[in-house]
Amino acid sequence: MAEAEEQDTGSLEESTDESEEEESEEEPKLKYERLSNGVTEILQKDAASCMTVHDKFLALGTHYGKVFLLDVQGNITQKFDVSPVKINQISLDESGEHMGVCSEDGKVQVFGLYSGEEFHETFDCPIKIVAVHPHFVRSSCKQFVTGGKKLLLFERSWMNRWKSSVLHEGEGNIRSVKWRGHLIAWANNMVQQLMSRAVSQFETEFYISGLAPLCDQLVVLSYVKELAEKTEREYCARPRLDIIQPLSETCEEISSDALTVRGFQENECRDYHLVYSEGESLFYIVSPRDVVVAKERDQDDHIDWLLEKKKYEEALMAAEISQRNIKRHKILDIGLAYINHLIERGDYDTAARKCQKILGKNAPLWEYEVYKFKEIGQLKAISPYLPRGDPVLKPLIYEMILHEFLESDYEGFATLIREWPGDLYNNSVIVQAVRDHLKKDSQNKTLLKTLAELYTYDKNYGNALEIYLTLRHKDVFQLIHKHNLFSSIKDKIVLLMDFDSEKAVDMLLDNEDKISIKKVVEELEDRPELQHVYLHKLFKRDHHKGQRYHEKQISLYAEYDRPNLLPFLRDSTHCPLEKALEICQQRNFVEETVYLLSRMGNSRSALKMIMEELHNVDKAIEFAKEQDDAELWEDLILYSIDKPPFITGLLNNIGTHVDPILLIHRIKEGMEIPSLRDSLVKILQDYNLQILLREGCKKILVADSLSLLKKMHRTQMKGVLVDEENICESCLSPILPTDAARPFSVVVFHCRHMFHRECLPVPTMNSPTQHCSICSAKNHGPGGVVLEMKK
């Protein structure tokens, strides 16, 4: 508490020594305020000697024998001239309608504040204590006690006379008395007493000017004397108000505040009094020239302390938690103070991040803070946290930040363009700014890519596509698909193919309805290697779509992709064979030429080429097997007869297609043939295997035939149902007559067709057996009779 002797009014905050204030991080438990207004006027001319607190008012006694009734603000409501000397104590009953006053000249007065009831008594010694019965207003409770050298009880009798009785004496002056219900507690120089029963007893090592309860703790007003460092003389220090926690054998100090009251240098221990209001946790520190009110700190005070200690984060959290209870603070104000504190400390990123939570959807405040960041050159810090939807700030705000990045950080600028929706700012303004920078650095890929994105948002897809193609950017295909830009790429097919031929071809083939095959082939005319990639993939998808280009593809495969030439020749039905043969022969493509010759029917030339060009007997044999032509085998044998390796190959493979004897008889005597023995053994083994296979097949055939014959016989031996629903297949009338007595004859064949006997042809010498005329006509064979019915 700062020195305030000259101040008449104003608040009095809690005060400690300057060194303690700087070092202490403990939050005070109480806050302080000087009682002013009428009190200030009183103490300018008089000095306070005692005070009593009631729920409705305060009663202040002075050294000049006056008693003042005050409201809680310190304004005077009533004044009583009780004595010319110091008032020692004032006592009030619970109703606040009766007051007891004692003074230094031995006078005791008990009177009604709002009635004429009054009692006067003068003693021969100073009376320090007076206490009226808490229920003095009742006629049965007209009692009060006084304390000097004796503790006297006064009570009014039934005849309105007052009588006194001694409760205690002989142990020094009575210092304090408290009356609660039917119990009286008092303290003297030696001991504290309780009428009826003991409550507590304790000793202290320091001067106590007053005690008051605070929940389960005690508030203690202490009188302090200290030694001067230079003179080593004692002097009166500021009084202290401590909160202590009583323990079983000692106590713990919870808080301690040094109070700078007016005139504390001249005060003694007896000059201080601690009075409290039980219901409100208010504590009044009374000194001759000052009255200070101490009260428990509320959430607003807690926030004040946190802000004073620059603990803004905790203050903001406390305000959010207690927003319904705080009265003097607003969450937004605390938040703004926090942002300013972070900026002053240079923690710009944290300050910007906190803006999201603190500013919320308040667009004007957002814009104000952005300009504040601009003034300190920290627009980049706040850019990631700007609102992008609700609320939306003025376009100028976003443009200002984009310009800041454009001047110093191309990558950061590009990031913002990607992340921010394009409707936050004026797109044309930013496009022009980027183009101006590209004039200085035309090949900057970051700027070019960003410009393409801006063009895309502005629906200027042509310019965007051109930039993407120049940069060979992977998003070019996505851009084309997303915005259906196929009409814009008809003259850019080569660029697309150069960038990524696989993706380009897939895209073109997937969208043939938008860019025709003819158009693509024409655009790629000067780039045959790309033309081949496109046509090859087209052919893989559909062998017939690009049939008009199959002749062209022969040369393209031959030039750029020979491994796929032969598969192409095999799968294509539109390829001109003569042209293909000409190209393959020119390039000496033997395998392809062999295939074409065989396909054109010139198998003997093809076989000759295999033998003469490839010298590969296995391939020649394989070719002969495919053609399955006796003349080819003969040619192969003739060509191989003087070549032992070829003979070995033939002996190993010819057995299943040509009689090996034909080859063996032609082998010249004395010719050395590699692995001849093994080849002959293999021929014999193959022959034996063929015999075994034939015998096995024969057994299976005979068994199956017998089984089927038996099954057919069983089936034909079964009876056939003939009833009125059946008809004659010749005359189409019911097979059975309607007249049961009439004689009839029915013929049923194994095919289940039925005829009247008279409807069938009469057997002749050439055809003595009757057959089903229907089945005979269909199968060109007879159907045998299975049953004949007569009656």
UniProtKB/TrEMBL annotation:
Task: Give all residue intervals belonging to the RING-type domain.
Answer: 728-776
Q: Where is this region: Disordered?
A: 1-33
Mind naming one GO cellular-component term on file for this protein? lysosomal membrane
Q: Which Pfam families does its entry note?
A: Beta-prop_Vps41, TPR_Vps41, zf-RING_Vps41
**Location(s), subcellular:** Endosome membrane; Late endosome membrane; Early endosome membrane; Lysosome membrane
The ranges of the CHCR repeats are 505-649
Q: Which GO terms describe its biological process?
A: cellular response to starvation; endosomal vesicle fusion; macroautophagy; protein targeting to vacuole
Named from the GO MF annotations, one term is: zinc ion binding
Homology family: Belongs to the VPS41 family.
**What is the recorded function of this protein according to its Swiss-Prot or TrEMBL entry?**
Plays a role in vesicle-mediated protein trafficking to lysosomal compartments including the endocytic membrane transport pathways.
Name of the molecule in the record: Vacuolar protein sorting-associated protein 41 homolog
- Organism of derivation: Dipodomys ordii
